[in-house]
Every structure is written in structure tokens, then in C-alpha cells.
Specification:
By secondary structure, this protein is α+β, with helices and mostly antiparallel strands. It folds into 2 domains: 121 residues; 102 residues, Arc Repressor Mutant, subunit A, CATH 1.10.10. 66% of the residues lie in helices and 10% in strands. It is built from 8 helices and 6 strands. It has a 4-stranded mixed sheet with strand order 3-2-1-6, with helices on one face. The protein has a two-stranded antiparallel sheet with strand order 4-5. A hairpin with a 3-residue loop joins strand 4 and strand 5. The N terminus is likely disordered.
Length: 233
């Protein structure tokens, strides 16, 4: 029997979330705009009131009264034009708000997708199909990426690669002893850890380098690469 919770979570795909989110934004802002426009006064309300004054007051026949009503009529026209411009500005602002909310929703969905992808990478590690170490050129090619390394960083990576081919895990003490040629009793664990740090720094991206060179607690360091993918030239 399928799990209804997992089935429901699978149904909420990013595309569906975006479509539903955009629809919700349009409906909410559309409803708000409709209520706003319905509650705005009529653009001709002032002119209608002035006209009503003309009709209901037959005694307003003096020149001064007529001029006053003409001024009021002109004011009503200016008011209607101003209100019409306000309506247009409100419409533009609503469209702009809709576009911003849609853009924010899409960005949020993509950020969530990226976060999930990064979490998957952290759990599974980097999928390295090819790791080629060139001692002569002092470069390492990881898939399609090429890194120029110093002599010390290349030696550290070579030691880790050889250990991975033998399915071994190296401590910082062992790494320092193998590179320096000294006995482990004359070496320091911190020196090997420093070599690993410098190698990660040369590889650039911190997350990628830390996933490529894993630190297993109380055991040591190992390359997260399949032995078949390693090639040393």
C-alpha cells in the first residue's frame, strides 16, 4: 500500500508549486484591486453634484452665481482628471506588485531546489568519473575541471590517490611521514592536517574540496573517488 504522505510530497513538484503560487498571487491581488477600484469615488461625481446644484437652484441666475458654478464645474473636471490618473497609477502599482511577488516566488522555489540539490551532494558526495594526476605538468583534472597545484599540494594528492588505490585511509601523521620521508615518530599530526588544508585551498571551492577529500573521524583522510577513476601520469 503506497504511503499517502510520500505520495502527496511527490505531487508537489516545483512546477506545480510555481503555477499554484502564481495563480494565488493573481487571485489575491486581483481581488484587492477590484475592491479598491469599486470603493474609489466616481470620476464624474463632482461634476454630477455641480449639475444637481444647477438643476435644483433656479434662483442662481446672477452673474456672480453663474461664474461661481462655472469655477466649481472646472474644479470637478480637474478632479475627475486627477482621479483618472490615480486609477492608472494604482493599476501600474498592482501590476508591478504582481510581477515582484511572482519573481520572489520563483526565486524562492529555485533556492529550495538548489538547497535540496546541495543536501543531496553533501550526502552522496561528488560523482567523480575521472581523476587524472599529471606530475610533470603539476596539474590535476577532475572530470572537466583542471587545477594547477604546487609541488607540495600535488604530493599530498598523489599520496591520497595511491592510498585510495590500495583502499587505505591515511592519518595526518602517515601523510606527513610519507611525504617528508621521516619516521612517524618524528612527525606531527598537525603537519599532515596542514597539508590537507593547503590542498583543499588549491582545489578552490571549499565544499567541493571537502567532499572530495573526506575526513573520517578517528581514522584519517581518504579520497571520495572510485579507484577505477584514478589515473596517475
Amino acid at each position: 500500500m503506497p504511503d499517502p504522505i510520500s505520495s502527496a510530497s511527490k505531487g508537489w513538484t516545483p512546477g506545480r508549486v510555481i503555477v499554484l503560487g502564481v495563480a494565488a498571487i493573481v487571485v489575491i491581488l486581483g481581488g484587492a484591486a477590484l475592491v479598491l477600484f469599486l470603493n474609489l469615488p466616481d470620476a464624474n461625481a463632482f461634476n454630477l453634484r455641480v449639475e444637481k446644484i444647477f438643476v435644483e437652484n433656479d434662483a442662481l441666475t446672477a452673474t456672480e452665481d453663474i461664474k461661481l458654478l462655472e469655477v466649481l464645474a472646472q474644479s470637478g473636471t480637474a478632479f475627475s482628471e486627477t482621479l483618472a490618473s490615480y486609477r492608472f497609477i494604482i493599476f501600474v502599482l498592482m501590476v508591478f506588485a504582481t510581477a515582484l511577488l511572482i519573481a520572489a516566488l520563483v526565486s524562492l522555489v529555485f533556492l529550495v531546489m538548489l538547497s535540496r540539490r546541495m543536501s543531496e551532494i553533501e550526502k552522496t558526495g561528488i560523482q567523480v568519473s575521472s581523476l587524472i594526476i599529471s606530475r610533470d605538468q603539476r596539474i590535476v583534472r577532475i572530470n572537466d575541471m583542471e587545477f594547477k597545484l604546487t609541488e607540495a599540494a600535488l604530493e599530498t594528492l598523489s599520496v591520497l590517490a595511491e592510498a585510495r588505490l590500495d583502499d587505505d585511509i591515511l592519518t595526518g601523521l602517515t601523510i606527513e611521514a610519507m611525504i617528508s620521508g621521516k619516521s612517524e615518530t618524528d612527525c606531527d599530526e598537525a603537519a599532515g592536517a596542514t597539508r590537507i588544508k593547503r590542498l583543499r585551498d588549491h582545489l578552490g571551492n571549499q565544499m567541493i574540496s571537502e567532499l572530495l577529500i573526506k575526513n573520517i573521524a578517528r581514522k584519517g583522510y581518504v579520497l571520495a573517488v572510485e579507484p577505477d577513476a584514478i589515473k596517475m601520469i
